[in-house]
Design brief:
By secondary structure, the protein is of the alpha/beta class. The protein folds into two domains: 142 residues, Rossmann fold, CATH 3.40.50; 168 residues, Rossmann fold, CATH 3.40.50. It has twelve helices and eleven strands. Strands 8-7-6-9-10-11 form a six-stranded parallel β-sheet, sandwiched between helices. Helix 7 links the parallel strand 6 and strand 7. It is globular, with a radius of gyration of 21 Å.
Amino acid sequence: MESRILIMRFSAMGDVAMTLPVIYSLAACYPQSQITVLTRKAFVPLFVHPPQNLNVKGVDLALYKGIVGINKLYDELKLGAFTHVADLHGVIRTSVLSVRFALAGVKVATIDKGRLQKMQLTKKRNKVLKPLKSSFERYRQVFSDLGFDVKLDFTSVFEGDETLNLPKALGGLKKSEASKWIGIAPFAKHQGKVYPLTEIEKLIEYYTNKKNCTLFIFGGQQDTIQVSKWTQQYPQAVSMIGVGTLEDEMNVMAQLDVIFTMDSANMHIASLAGTRVVSFWGATHHYAGFLGWNQKHDDIIAADIACRPCSVFGDVKCYRGDYKCLHEIKSESIIQKMDKLIFG
């Protein structure tokens, strides 16, 4: 009997991005299985060059509110005749859907988020500061619980694709053998993750004045005003906001020599493009298991202070009141790290 696998993960963008190396590996290990990923419509573009046996279904969750909406969604999904359901989210909505499928005789497995261990990692006093399972391993375990032994074998969504075309909005910009392309993604959803913009500007000034270097700045529409100020002051910098699709951005990322990011969705998107990432961690910590795919611990930049981490997601207000974790690191040390990677 052919396996038909439903995978559920609705948010956040970075967490959905982290499913790709596992799901693409699953699809490669089990080419005879039909796989459907259920996620938010906005995150469908993350699944660049999906395997032939993978279908991504994007939904507008506003149309499926409350228990009535969840039951409506279940009625639509059951038409897929799924044999296995992988809940990679573990929230009320996916739990209710999982129960409905289980009652119908479908084999179901749900992610173990390790909430207790993460609480111990982030508590104010007597932290248990040790590495936890990565999200990739937690996702892989769900498929193992369903009977699918997944060998994680993923390099890039562009693997085997020799045509990395740049967005037309970049005006025919091309990378020469002598040039170095550098990315900066200085924004994140929560304040506890964001490196001070005054220090970011020092990075922008340094690399836009560097010979044979092209600097790309990544962000969302909400960051347009700040990025426009930088590109006006430093015309050599290239804004990636609104220049094309998410795949276009990833095309550019794939051609960078290195990118500097926060602990953010852009860290994970760059990882999917196979790009070397220097990542900055403020209130959060890579021990929680959210370091980007194939990224190196040596490329992490973080302050060694006792109160870190105070949060898994960076959404907790600094109890010190000064966000020392964000201000302790100076731009010179980041430049030194990046220069070593770029120029050797």
